[in-house]
Amino acid sequence: MVATHTHDATGATEATSDAITNAERQAPSRTLPPAKKLRVATASLAGCFGCHMSLLDIDERLIDLIELVDFDRTPITDIKHLGDCDLGIIEGGVANAENVEVLRGFRRHCRILVALGACAVNGGIPAMRNGFALSECLEEAFIDGIGLYNRGIPNDPELPLLLSQVHPIHEIVKVDYCLPGCPPSGDAIWAFLTALLQGRPIALSDKQLHYD
Amino acid sequence: MHQVIPGAPATGLGPAAPSDRPDPAPARIAQVVERSLARLGRRPEQVLQHLIALQQAFSFVPEAGIRALTERLDVTRAQCLAAIDFYAFLHRTPRGQYNILLSDNITDRMLGSQRLMQLLCERLGVDPGVPRADGRVSVDVTSCTGMCDQAPALLVNGFAITRLDEDRMRHIAALVDTRVPLQHWPQDYFAVSNHVQRSGLLLRDLEVRDAGLSALFERGGDAVLAEIERSGLRGRGGAGFTTALKWRFCRETGQPQKVVVCNADEGEPGTFKDRVLLTAYADLVIEGMTLCAGIVGAREGFIYLRGEYRYLLEHLEAVLQRRRELGLLGKQIGASARTALRSGLSVGRGTDAGINAGIGPDMDVISGAAQTGDQTSNQTSNQTSAVRGRLDAVDGPFDFDIQIHLGAGAYICGEESALIESLEGKRGVTRKRPPFPVTAGYLNRPTLVNNVETFLAAARVAEHGGYWLRSEGTDLSAGSKILSVSGDCALPGVYEVPFGTSVRELLDLCGAQSVQAVQVSGAAGSTLSAEELDRVLAFEDLPTAGAFMVFGQQRDLLEMVRNFAGFFVHESCGFCTPCRVGGVLLRDLIEKVASGRASAHDLEEMRRIGDLMRRASHCGLGHTAPNHLLQTLEKFPWIYQTRLASAEYTPAFDLDAALAEARRLSGRDDPGAHLAS
Amino acid sequence: MAIVEGRFRLDGVEIPFQPGQTIMDAALAAAVYIPHLCHHPALLPHGSCRVCVVRVNGREVSSCTTPATAGLEVESETEALRALRVAILQMLFVEGNHVCPACERTGACELQAVAYHCGMLEPHFTHFFPRRELDASHPDLVLDLNRCILCERCVRASRDLDRKRVFAVAGRGLDSHLIVDSPTGRLGDSRLELTDQAAHICPVGAILLRQRAGDVGERHGFRVPIGERPYDRESISRVGDVATLVEES
After folding, report:
1. Which residues does chain C have with pLDDT short of 70?
2. Yes or no: is domain A31-130+164-197 CATH 2.40.10.340?
3. Is residue B588 within 8 angstroms of chain C, CB to CB?
4. pTM of the entire predicted model
5. CA-to-CA distance for B348 and B238, rounded, in angstroms?
6. Cβ B584–C84 below 8 Å, yes or no?
7. ipTM
């Protein structure tokens, strides 16, 4: 049995108040100047690129987006060097030294930094390794695992070292906005981006706000 | 001169026999359980006392002991484990045969307790918190043990050793290594001074024994309650609820089986005056409880004695026993008093066992490992009995007796509803209100809980009348307050001063100079800056349960903040989210500041979390836990500002340290294996 | 303003109440939602999660434990209280390991749904990432303490409704943790049965029903598609709590 507590108010008015609530919470702490085309960079740290896939899921609205922004460094453009940007979008948590450097670069170069998706927001699935010691993880992966050759923990200086735990990005740098979801839906990303780019309050509907 | 508490135990102190560890013989466990059951009965609410008995016998609570209890009482194994894991002095695995706990209040630290602990651990080859491999010894810290006037202090198997220094630590290490039983440790190690530096209204002119009770017998409950009402006496535990009002609620409630409880769980860091009152003025305290029982109509009483004061247990039992023999406790209390009078016996005011034993309030007592002496026969001749005259005016003889329940290391149990939960054998989690304890407390019976000092004051008001108390103090705070003064001052100890005394006056009395800050009413109280020394100790300005800790100019106040924040993390009961989680977040942010990694953003976070705890916590512990932080942020901002790494934002953790494990595992130390902070 | 006997005002709306009801009881009876987690109508009021905090006479109280009294002015849906609730929810999220995408209860989790309702977009605080036990010893149920929020619903249900005392909270402070009453401490050796109320009253994914072939129903894991789960489309303020009592069969 599902207990229901029906509010006197209609669903519509509740949804409105919900939206206002979100709007107030996300009242822009840094606003963007309108009219000019804005420069946007994105990166995926310890994530699965699912949030970037979801960004592509805005489908034909990508055309509209291109009217509003120029892309700097992103996995989509394959630009490797990060220039000064208006908006930086980070997917994924922080698992290793390279993630830290990339994230700090984004914070330095982007006026507004957004945590996109569960991993950036709270560490997500990769942070499930935090229930184990790093030694347990590495030993399982490189020493005790089945079918391994050249057993041993890699020590190549080219490889980024792992942090003892995976962290959400706000534990390393200041984050201006968070959009949760695993991934956030294309609709949520679109609603979020257009509001942000047009300087409107950000409002997510009940359907758009989810953590999974 | 050192004197001895009558009845301080000479046995049961020493380390348990080696054969008891790690697996005590089942027969021995059964024996301890049976003895405890025989003493306390099989009511489920006694389970905590049984667990304490097992802990004391074996240095932990063996599984077989838990099993035996679940078979005999209506308690589950989970309930036992829940309690064991809650109380700091109960353990599921053996502690050392010598279990040493250093008091970890800021006043101990200011006198070098951390260095002394390190010395002791080095000497003994033991890590803090971990029993030595041979099971001989364990060393750890514990929350303030109420010895701040003679700090640094420790507890060894529950008994206090004060005035620690390097010599004492080295000697203690040697005593442990050579397995000297506690009974044979130097007696003066266990000396606990009363340090009554100033007696006021309540503690002077104690010529007449049980005068308050005799007033009850002569004038009746209504008249005495009216005097207490007239006096304006307010609870001395800090909250300041009007005592007469509480007593009247309890007197007038229709329910039977009322209970009177003396809150002797003096856990607020920096407070120790109840220790002294229970040592030197126990009779007065118990007289006040008896008076209360007579007025409200209670037959059952408890003294909830904090585990840290376990060394006072035998002394208090002896006082209770003597009062029973004198007809001042037990059956037909008014009638017995008459009998006592007729037979020419002194009815034992014994302002205290101490005075009976020839101990003045400012003399010393030995906390443990003591020989006993027959103190009760040593009646002093200059005291006269007050129980005389018109005994027929008494409401009628009444039955009342008191048992002592031990705490087991939980600050929260000083809160009255948590204390009641603990009396019922449970974890000390504060109850929701209403109902208030005075309507539904211990086992849902009307329960009147007062502080040690409140009962003492009530007894004296009954003796002298309401106007007597009002001769001192302020309009809203009648009478005097007994304070525990410690920290940077020449004369730490107990001071009884009129309410309305300014902080500056008390600082002068105790010989404090170049004061930077004063912490009034313990870790949960108020942090005063040097600009506020004209504020007064009274409910209307600075309400206090009694702690008064002085910090000189040479002190780093962030050390105080770190100490208090750690204390509240350790002592949060964990029931409600804001205190359980918020306290840890605050502690971690404070440590971040101390390590030089914090930003201005973190200070703002601390304010926000502190505000949330104040507003949304379930009980007073959570409401007051951030006080020290919020007040020092406001009054001493430089202790934080000067340590900030950034004006804006810094990582939550030390980035380079977070790579240390990976460096170790990979054997790398190249530049790429490091991160700048 | 006239005080109406047996009524108080919640955000300006008159709410009738019966003697003995709390603010929460009366509000829910009047179909006005106050966010809550530890509260459950079948259980004694508890007041531990503090999510139901409301403002009465200038101070914050838990609405689930505060008796309703005539003429009371209660604030609930203010921005200040919403912010307070969000911060409390954030504390619960960082205290445990709440990996929503990997939890079978997602979409039907009251913690998640209350957080949606309050507009929580991120956990804000530094995560504790505690190491906690997972107990899969029971044939019908799994106990995953990573998700336990210490609401003690199962403790109260087992003690007061099932009369078994299977669960208890042990320890204190941040070390507070749910324990199981059995000789081994494992759930499989306890007296907990699938038919117990305690097995179904968890608001989060700490006590989960095991999935077995042929099982149906929305409480069973990932079987319900995303988009059709209880809290996918509507707020918990309209859907209500999904953890409810087992119906008498």
Report:
1. 1-5, 212-221, 245-249
2. no
3. yes
4. 0.91
5. 30
6. no
7. 0.95
